[in-house]
Request: fold
Amino acid sequence: MQSVDIEALNQQIYIDSAFVEKLNEETAKVIVGQRHMIERLMLGLLTKGHVLLEGLPGLAKTLAINTLSKAVDAKFNRIQFTPDLLPADIIGTMIFNPSKNEFTVRKGPIFANFILADEINRAPAKVQSALLEAMQERQVTIGGETYPLQEPFLVLATQNPIEQEGTYPLPEAQVDRFMLKVKITYPTKEDEREIIRRNLQTGGFPEIKPVVDPASILKARESVNKVYMDEKIEKYILDIVFSTRTPGDYNLSSLQALINYGGSPRASIALAKSAKAYAFLKRRGYVIPEDVRQVCHDVMRHRIGLTYEAEAENVTQEDIINKILDTVEVP
Reply:
């Protein structure tokens, strides 16, 4: 690609990404700190990728998703996952109408732009399979009829740490459908002081105003696809993913006994898309290696299976990803 083309593309992306600053400013009215979480939610929005948020209760996961949906002027539904939830509670069901002597469809809460699946790992397997069709196919089947879901459609799920009572691991097939798995940590002491003050002020939180509409988000997705990715960056992404499958080929033989399974081709796709979207958020028309490194943990942490040996040695996915990023050659 000619340098003049890169320059023109860079200017175009800079214009197309103007709403990013407005979104950041609007969400900052309510959310203190947690910029990493907000940034990752935006990545999901720009890449049609679902996001899994893992963290302890009370870390503003639900508040962040609700705030973002208001700023995007999109329809938002929250589903609280519980052990007694049924698939019909999510997708809807057929209701018999005595006056017309026929069945009619009552659509469930899945018919919205933003779906907050709260505490997703407390629900039974049948509910997970119903959600899986909506996430992957972007459609719902009720009574033999198929109904497409309105774009943008995004599932933002919160998950409690597995060690908590009443939780269990999600099936690997479903976890892999999430483009990003984001770990939420405690705020800093300064941020928490600000959180206390905002929650105690009279009048409550400021009102969130829509600063972008769903149509603009769909247009922005097209711009993200235009972000330039050099062949060297593509090779870097492939090297990272392949090093989780065959560590010995990348001078990472020490990881061979720690990795049960590595990232699938879906991991390579997700890493490339996320890197492009990250460059877009930084208002740049091309991908640099640092973009890949910034999103790598969120893309890969739920796609690497650990062996019993790794668990016995308290080795985590984070440790493995850090080792890979330190070893694989950067273009």
Observations:
- Residues 265-281 form the longest helix (17 residues).
- The CA atoms of residues 275 and 292 lie 5 Å apart.
- The chain has two domains: 34-197, 227-327.
